[in-house]
């Protein structure tokens, strides 16, 4: 009995996967009866873990009994693939039922344009297209990177939709905080948001991590609506694409411990194993880029974790410093750490343990420590998070203009990153990370960091106008 309960409990967290031979409530034997609402909506793609696999996800408000993608190299759609359906019951008053459909498309050919629609005999979506992932002629893949996009005042949305459809991007990395919030109004905010990103995500893979705005009902709107490859509830996972190993994880486990402390340790142990595996494969996949919502370093006004001397994400749990991430990522030579949460854009100098590598003309050429970027300015109704007036030493550039980042990992040595504005077409910032060697920092790197770096002591107050009593 206890086992059964445990099983049910775990299944509900995922959404209950429905059996293929189930009977739907509308099946009465009368052929005139079908589901009340069989129309598929909120179609989106995710990367299946390698370029030959694409995951298609959508939603219906009733049980359609089948889950099918019809696709092909023309709009004849002569191929078809079936998948699974799970029932997601919203935690709100009405316990709204959503049927989440997932199909894995396999043997997708690089560079080939596919047409597809999704559904069942009770309703089909419009026809969308995607192109099998292949490196760009000039090298590597292009990503849109941003966090903190709401459905009210999603200022960057139009531009990202247009550029995605024109295949200016190969993939989106959405670094947490969706819709503000997906659970609101019995989950209708989530539905609206997923409809708003369909013009992006039905065309290119939409890869995600969870933010604090997804916290409701144990992150179940996030867990059910997004489907990341080889993952634990899409909360932590990794994949390789071209020369880059991308690691997504949840910063929120550290803050919503009411859902269980063990998630912090489980994830940390997984991160360690994943980095060990990535290290062995670094000759083939040299870059390691992490993404999670809440940053280690920032210079925003609010008293967020990143402003504390001992940020939990950076240094781990209070007192014990267990499961800190800065040492782990430094040790394995993570190249770039993407964050959001602060509604602004901020590029940091390479930094480790509050030693800022700012004493050279080219801090991003063979940096001896990870580079951090906070890109949380896609746009939402909460407006921008103001910066502290005098930036702390790790802050290299910052902007409060709504916009999003573009990243292209060209090859083993060159990674390009830029920030563009949502209004107009202003290039707000750009930089190259050039690395002639990837891997654990060696003695030379350590000396370089010591020589050209500035160690910022714990009691450092970067301006007397700030309250430096317990935070910077
Ligand atoms: C569907 O469910 C089966 C059995 O649980 C699983 O092996 C398969 O990976 C699932 N497919 C998708 C697309 O989730
Ligand atoms: C929250 O969900 C996770 C899986 O995502 C599960 O491991 C954990 O036990 C859940 N916590 C509670 C309190 O339900
Ligand atoms: C980080 O800096 C602090 C303060 O200078 C020092 O005590 C600590 O040993 C350093 N940690 C590492 C891993 O270098
Ligand atoms: C590096 O940062 C420190 C602390 O803000 C500052 O004193 C120093 O002038 C900076 N170095 C350079 C070369 O800008
Ligand atoms: C890597 O890409 C950069 C930027 O396009 C280019 O300058 C460089 O020559 C490339 N390196 C190799 C080995 O192709
Ligand atoms: Fe946030």
Automatic annotation (TrEMBL):
First-level EC class: hydrolase
Sequence ranges assigned to domain Purple acid phosphatase C-terminal in this UniProt record: 369-429
Record key words, sorted: Glycoprotein, Hydrolase, Signal
Signal sequence extent: 1-15
Enzyme Commission (EC) number: 3.1.3.2
Keyword Glycoprotein set for record: yes
Purple acid phosphatase N-terminal domain ranges (all copies): 40-130
InterPro entries in the record: Calcineurin-like_PHP (IPR004843), Metallo-depent_PP-like (IPR029052), MPP_PAP (IPR041792), PAPs_C (IPR025733), PAPs_N (IPR015914), Purple_acid_Pase-like_N (IPR008963)
Domain of life: Eukaryota
Residues in Calcineurin-like phosphoesterase domain copies: 142-345
Entry GO MF terms: acid phosphatase activity; metal ion binding
Catalytic activity: a phosphate monoester + H2O = an alcohol + phosphate
Protein family according to the UniProt entry: Belongs to the metallophosphoesterase superfamily. Purple acid phosphatase family.
Protein name, UniProt field: Purple acid phosphatase
Organism name: Steinernema carpocapsae (Entomopathogenic nematode)
